[in-house]
Amino acid sequence: MFRWIRKFKVTILVLLAAVCFFFWWNGNRGYDDTAMAGFPDLSGVDESSVLEEGGSKLEASYSAYYRDLSAEGSKDTAGYSFKLDGLAYAAVSDEGTSKEEGLGGRSGGALALVDENSWVEYEFEVPQDGFYQFGMDYYAMPGKRSSLVRSVEIDGAYPFYQSKKLELQRMWKEAGETWFDNQNNEFNPKREEVTGWQYREFRDSEAKSYDPFRYYLKQGKHTIRIGNIREPGAIGAVYIFSPKQVPAYETVQQQYEEQGYKATSGHYIKAQAELSSLRSDPTLKRIEDREPDTEPFNKDAVVLNSFGGASWRTGGQWAQWEVEVPEDGLYEIGARFGQWFLNGIPVQRSVTIDGELPFEEMKGVFFPYKAEWQIAKFGAMDESDPYLYYLTKGKHTIRMEVQVGAVGPLLDQVTDTVRKMSLIGREVIQVTGTNPDPNGDWKLEQNINNLVPRLQAMAKHFDDVIHGLYDIGVTEGSSEVSTLYEVRDVLLGMAEDTQSIPARMQQFTDLQSSIGTWVSGMTKQSLLLDYLIVKSPDQPWPRASAGAFVRTGTMLYDFVNSFTKDYSGVGNIYKDEKVLDVWIARGRDWVDIIKQMVDEDFTQQTGIKVNVNVIPANQMQVLLLANTAGIAPDVALGVEGEVPIDYAVRNGLVNLKDYADYDEVASRFRPGALIPYQYDGGSYALPENQNFNMLFYRKDIMQQLGIKEEDIPDTWEEVMDLIPLLQQNGMDFYYPHAPLNPALAINEYAPFLFQNGGEFYKENGALSNLDSPEAMNAFKMWTGLFTNYKIQKQADFYNRFRSGEMPIGVADYTTYVLLSTAAPELTGWWAMKPMPGMKQADGQINRSTGGLAQTGMIFKSTDMKEEAWEFLKWWTSADTQVQFGSELESLLGVEARWNTANIEALKQMPWSESDIDAIMEQWEWFKEREVVIGGYYTTRHIANIWNEVVLNGKIPREAVEDGVKEINKELRKKREEFGLDEADGEKATAAAAGTTAEGGESP
Hints:
By secondary structure, the protein is α+β, with helices and mostly antiparallel strands. It contains 27 helices and 44 strands.
């Protein structure tokens, strides 16, 4: 062997060198940090767009507002402080407010803004021009558990868009101790709200600025209007003051010396992070970590031994801990933390002690990225020189709040540059059209003002952001920065060769979506804490993590244990007794909540014990295999909407209509929601949740196009009239299409079919009805959007809605959640209404659409039919669904808002009034499609028909007729396989003879 190596050593060395070069090249290409070095000064480039004539209606960002005013010479004022009593208002809205006395033990009165859109206005006077800050005493009143959201107008206008959405957090604590199941696994207790007065300055709800907002005011009188956007709350007082100046550590250190403060000795105090005394958000909770040094640790069971993690990531979220020190003096403070969430990117927390910043450096303490546990020395400039903090003997509170201040201005710069990219993209489309010839000479430099310098300037903005990230400690080669490099280089390439721009527009658009996602991800500053440390300087810092030998032993133990441990069971697991088995196809966090509710509520009410098991995601075949093997559960939840009929036709489910109170339970849902679960006169499942489509639109862009609020399209005819106007202005309409998931095509087509009065099947599901005139019209309308009107076949609607390229479109409720939580710059500038429909003869607009989601069903093999029905009734009841939705949102945030199918429960979820009104109007037209055996061919061929018509140019009728032939073949085959035609024939014969097919008398 060695002779062979010596013989070919040159070849081997060459190959190794080639491999190394390959990896070096792929790892470094595009990462040229000197790419902008040869460019002239781009600071004076006119980056304005002809599309901005008349001015953008969107407010500027706070960073741009403050930067521009500072550049003009505006300065902080000094020495001013003024307090406005909550009841000393100049004007107030006619409805939705109330005066409160003695609220929360506060002496005197307060003004409560109770209803959405209520407001109060105060007048005040300032002595000089300059920057001022505001703060407010507030009391969160009972509502829907969300944080309070308020808007602030100064002299009748919003100075910047962040002023339209100020978040005022509630306070939460754990309601009791953690609980343990009978496997000794630990679970979080419920969280309960702590009521009381709080003070907060007006600051960025995303924490993109270290300091509270600075509002520029001229000398004289001014008005401030505070509006209620979400949740009721009272105003105790409003404060206007000159910006506070927090001293730097160097100044504080000198004060220590002047006052004779001495370092303590011999004290070492730990505060376990999971024992947080107060927090801003019910989503902040204890979590498990399996590193052996994490305290406490249990190798045999789940122990919740750390705090935060992925849920502690959003600007403004805070938690606080209590520590008690034995004597006055100087201490060091730190923490054991894990920060492996943003690859190569440090995250930040502001740290206050007893409600005050000790010194300026604590506005944003950095926690660097590393794929293992670390020890942080708060404020340390290097490992050998931690900062000192003066603490008096007794109890103190340490609060840590999510802070994005270091990257905030960089993110605003990226967002502003993406907006400029969107404008230039729209200008290109105005010249080339939506489907340009990539080889044509479009003379873009002649038709678009300042094209090349604008592209170069945008590339420079991204280059500045890249270097700004490196300046704050981002690791070289971080994957989080690669997206910025790619966008920069694409912009440079387009500037160098403008002829290539039409052919690169799809890439250009995709990069805007990528950047939008990148910005959203960068604002999520997750951090995991094990414990806080308060110690004397002479005490050593602990080690960050266990040694390699100990960690390896723990991993081996977990690996061996995995062969015998049952990971599917959740909570208390009962054995050798009568128990209801429930299998749930959802995430572990979701199932934990359900199991806890079952144990605390359902079992306590009924005495019925329940075992809950988790079905892995997208593993519906597990149910089929279990049913075949005779080990099916009693009840299954989270089942995909098309699955129940597959079991019903095989006689595998209980017919819910056999229960005497079925009709009463069914009335909880829209009648159209039950259609997919009906077969042969029976009903075999209940809907748990439902999706729904709405029409989203940008108010500002619609106004710029001359479209009034009342003229937003209500019908598809109006949509088709609007599309040419959009495209003439470089914009487009959005209708969902998922080419990578053909199974969704049937849901995309269904609204057009139902609104045209069509159905998917005829003759009781024996034949396809897609060749009917109604279905044919629906196909022409659906595909015509893409063929005749040339709307985009695929797009990231959320990001393109934000950029303005798609200012109107149809999307589901997840888009609502995204826009509500991750698009602060659009606050007040977007709305949603029921989706477009077809005008009927009586003048009504038929907006019929479905939203097939997840269901609950009872297996026929169960010997606990009555208990199973009691469980299904309990689970789908309004009270249970509201509680589950609240707990879920408390655990995972608003992104996980539960779209329950229960009508009454949905109304009680924390939607805004205008939004829930629009949703309920759409739900009046809720209609779901029939599910039949062999219906998967319908799903497949609807996708094929779209492809044939839109991509291949086939005539719709030909494509439909070809598809219907194949669908009918499969329907016939499946009906023969299950003897359905024979059964129908027997029933018809029996009916003619006056008896039932089973031999009884015909009714």
